[in-house]
Specification:
The chain is 47% helix and 16% strand. The chain is of the alpha/beta class. It has a single domain (5-239), classed as NAD(P)-binding Rossmann-like Domain (Rossmann fold). A seven-stranded parallel β-sheet has the order 3-2-1-4-5-6-7, sandwiched between helices. Strand 1, helix 1 (14-25) and strand 2 (29-34) form a beta-alpha-beta unit. Helix 1 (14-25) packs across helix 9, helix 3 packs parallel to helix 4 and helix 4 (102-130) runs parallel beside helix 6. 47% of the residues are buried. The structure holds NADPH dihydro-nicotinamide-adenine-dinucleotide phosphate. Residues 9-10, 12-16, 33-37, 40, 61-63, 88-91, 111-112, 138, 140, 183, 185-186, 188-191 line the site of NADPH dihydro-nicotinamide-adenine-dinucleotide phosphate.
C-alpha cells in the first residue's frame, strides 16, 4: 500500500486513531480527520511522522455537506485524491425509543450514516477515474443484531451495511471494493462512557471474555485495505471476540 492516500474520518481518537496509525505503518499517506479535538489529531499526526510516515490533520464535521467538500479539496491539494476511505467517525446518544428525542435520532443518523454517504460519494469519484479504491465503513454488531437503548445507533449502523452492499455492486467492476467492519465492544472513550457496571455486565456474553482493543479493529481494516483483500467486497467482517455468533 506504499504511498496510497488514505482518509480516516474521526481519526483523532479511539478506533480511528488506531486505523490511521495502522495504515501509516502499512505505508499509506494518511489524512486524519477530526471534529472537535484538533490537539488529539495533531498528536496522531506527530506520532506517525516521528515513525517516518506521512500524515496531515484535516478538520471537519463529516455530517455536513460543505465541510466534507472542503475536507476532500484540502486532502487533494495536500496529498492527492483519496484512494482508501475509512468511514469511522461515529457517536452514540442512547435512550429507550419512547424517551428518544428527535434531536438524538437525527444527530446519530447524521454523524454515523449521512457522513458515510457524503464521504463515499466524494471519494468514489476519484476512485472511478483511478480504477482502484477501497471503502471501509465501521459499523457495529448493534447494526446486525439490534440493541435496546440504541435504536438510532443500530439503525444508522444497519444503514451503513446497506450502503456498503449497494455501492459494492455499483463500483465493483471498476476495481473498487466496499466493505464494513463490525466491532463488538472495544475499549475506547465511547465504551468508557458506559460505566464500570455496564461494561462488566457485558463480559459474560463475549466468548473471549474481554473487550477488544483499537489495534485489533485496525488490523481488520488493514487487511480489507490491502491487495490481499482484492477479491473481498460487499462483506461485513465481524470482529467482536465471539459476542454475536
Ligand atoms: P470515540 O468516541 O472514541 O471517537 C470518536 C471519533 O469520531 C473521534 O475521533 C471524534 O472526533 C470523531 N467524530 C465524532 N463526530 C464527528 C463528526 N461529526 N465529524 C468528524 N469526526 C467526528 O469512538 P470509537 O473509537 O469508540 O468509535 C469509532 C467508530 O467505531 C464509531 O463509528 C463507532 O460507532 C464504532 N464502534 C465502536 C465500538 C466500541 O465499542 N467502541 C463498537 C462498535 C462500533 P473528535 O475527537 O475530534 O471530536
Amino acid at each position: 500500500m506504499a504511498g496510497r492516500v488514505a482518509l480516516v474520518t474521526g481519526g483523532s481518537r479511539g478506533i480511528g486513531r488506531a486505523i490511521a496509525e495502522r495504515l501509516a505503518a502499512d505505508g499509506c499517506r494518511v489524512a486524519v480527520n477530526y471534529h472537535t479535538r484538533r490537539d488529539a489529531a495533531d498528536e496522531v499526526v506527530a506520532g506517525i511522522r516521528s515513525r517516518g510516515g506521512e500524515a496531515i490533520a484535516v478538520g471537519g464535521d463529516v455530517g455536513d455537506v460543505e465541510a466534507v467538500a472542503a475536507m476532500f479539496a484540502a486532502i487533494e491539494t495536500a496529498l492527492g485524491p483519496v484512494e482508501i476511505l475509512v468511514n469511522n467517525a461515529g457517536i452514540t446518544a442512547d435512550d429507550l425509543l419512547l424517551r428518544m428525542k428527535p434531536e438524538a435520532w437525527e444527530a446519530v443518523i447524521r454523524t454515523n450514516l449521512d457522513s458515510a454517504y457524503l464521504c463515499t460519494r466524494a471519494a468514489v469519484r476519484g476512485m472511478l477515474k483511478a480504477k482502484w479504491g477501497r471503502v471501509i465503513s465501521i459499523t457495529s454488531v448493534a447494526g446486525i443484531s439490534g440493541n435496546p437503548g440504541q435504536a438510532n445507533y443500530a439503525a444508522a449502523k444497519a444503514g451503513l451495511i446497506g450502503l456498503t452492499k449497494s455501492v459494492a455492486k455499483e463500483v465493483g467492476s471498476r476495481g473498487i471494493t466496499v466493505n464494513a467492519v463490525a466491532p463488538g465492544f472495544v475499549a475506547t472513550d465511547m465504551t468508557e462512557a458506559l460505566g464500570d457496571s455496564v461494561r462488566e455486565a457485558a463480559l459474560p456474553a463475549i466468548a473471549l471474555g474481554r473487550f477488544g482493543t483499537p489495534p485489533e479493529i485496525a488490523a481488520a481494516v488493514g487487511y480489507l485495505a490491502s491487495d490481499d483483500a482484492a477479491y473481498v467486497t460487499g462483506h461485513v467482517l465481524v470482529v467482536d471476540g465471539g459476542l454475536s455468533f
